[in-house]
Amino acid sequence: MSIKVSDTVNAPLNYGYGFLESECRMAINAVGLEPAVGFLHDFSNYQTKQSLAYDLQEPFRWLVDLSVIQAFESGALDLKNFYFTGDDYRYRFEMEAKQRFIDLIRQRFNAGVTYKGRVLKWDTILEQKTNELGRFVVGKSPTLNFVDPAPKLERQDNHKLRTKILALTQSEAKQLGVGKSTFHYLRTRARSKQCIRVSRKVKERMIA
């Protein structure tokens, strides 16, 4: 059976959502809420289903979605890393590729964001929001806000930067302080539409 592109995307998405669910379960246990009582999902009538954990995943699913996009754009995941298992009719991906993907998710969860005057990691934000939910439920807080902090999802390698890179000559790149190897890397990535990593200094020189 051939592997479809949609299958290769769904496999890491499902794996990533499982990672996110475990983070939500830990936050719920740390705060001391009842995991079976959800607001968006039905009340759990069996132990393995924890509706509140599913609720808490919703505002943070983008962490996994973005990690999957980054994984495929960077080459950490590729079509060749996936295979079909005939026993249970599921698509899986190789252990080494899975570890690379886990590393990307951890990097995303460990990324800093400013919230209430402090720079916190997203896994800390998740626990903080769970704590705020607990305070709201028992009436210690009159409001509940899951909007802030909002993620800033801006691509570094936008269309303007790619166009600029492809228009540059070797001599112009040299004048901007871009070496031959870096220039070759940038042009190759820009042509292939792969993710481009460029230092802030070089980027500012290019789009100035």
Can you give a write-up of this model?
The chain is mainly alpha-helical and about 210 residues long. It has two domains: about 5-135, CRISPR-associated endonuclease Cas1, C-terminal domain (Four Helix Bundle (Hemerythrin (Met), subunit A)), CATH 1.20.120; about 160-205, no CATH class. It is about 55% helix and about 10% strand. The protein contains nine helices and four strands; from the N terminus they run H-H-H-E-E-H-E-E-H-H-H-H-H. A two-stranded antiparallel sheet has the order 1-2. A two-stranded antiparallel sheet has the order 3-4. The longest helix is centred in the first third of the chain and has 27 residues, at about 5-30. The radius of gyration is 21 Å and the shape is flat. The chain starts with a helix and ends with a helix. The model has no long low-confidence stretch (mean pLDDT about 85).
Feature tags:
two-stranded antiparallel ribbon; Four Helix Bundle (Hemerythrin (Met), subunit A); 9 helices; 208 residues; mainly alpha
Summary, kept brief:
With 208 residues, the protein is mainly alpha-helical.
How many discrete domains? 2
Q: Architecture of the largest domain, CATH level 2?
A: Up-down Bundle
Count all strands and give the number: 4
Main-sheet strand order equals 1-2
| Helicity range | 55-70%
| Radius of gyration based on Cα positions | 21 Å
Determine and state the CATH class of the largest domain: Mainly Alpha
Which parts are unreliable, with pLDDT below 50 for 5 consecutive residues or more?
none
Which structural class best describes the helix and strand composition?
mainly alpha
How many angstroms separate the termini? 50 Å
